């Protein structure tokens, strides 16, 4: 399916996690589709090694697993996207392209699990102190999100009603296209809204925006 797409080239296929890391380092792919259950080295460990050594290579986890601990560990390891294997072909292809552009994508059910995990962490850690990156922020597609201080909160520019709605949809794991269809706007307009929201909240990634949205609903 991937090899017949005019803008994609399959440069290699690995049989296990050890081979996945070795081939990624040799072939320097733009995107890696990573399974989580593999012999010799699991997908989480392989993802961590690839994202550490190859910051320009983006990992898309594609699996049948949706256990919350597995989801969270894969994201901490540096995965840009996490899809279940029952996604449609169009969804998979669009996500590969989005990951190549540097975007982070989670299916709605996975996004909910991540947000639930953030909330649980917040209940035992004052200010929702999260370390969602297993390596340095400079090379991480999903960076560590420090607790928002009152000083930072004062510096953020308030969102209007439309921006608040789009922020909630981002927290639900929606892509720009899905948000556009939901709020009846052009996809380019949504992209502009997202950029403006990130500027106002001083966020670097969509994942940071999602965490901020959860904080706002919890009143942190």
Quick recap:
The protein is α/β, with parallel strands linked by helices and 220 residues long. Helices cover 51% and strands 7% of the residues. The chain has two domains: 17-111, Response regulator (Rossmann fold); 145-218, Arc Repressor Mutant, subunit A, CATH 1.10.10.10.
Task: Tell me about this structure.
- This protein has 220 residues and is α/β, with parallel strands linked by helices.
- The protein has two domains: 95 residues, Rossmann fold (3-Layer(aba) Sandwich), CATH 3.40.50.2300; 74 residues, Winged helix-like DNA-binding domain superfamily/Winged helix DNA-binding domain (Arc Repressor Mutant, subunit A).
- The protein is 51% helix and 7% strand.
- Strands 1-2-3-4 form a four-stranded parallel sheet, sandwiched between helices.
- Strand 1, helix 2 and strand 2 form a beta-alpha-beta unit.
- Helix 8 packs across helix 9.
- The longest helix is centred in the middle third of the chain and has 17 residues.
- About 15% of the residues have low confidence.
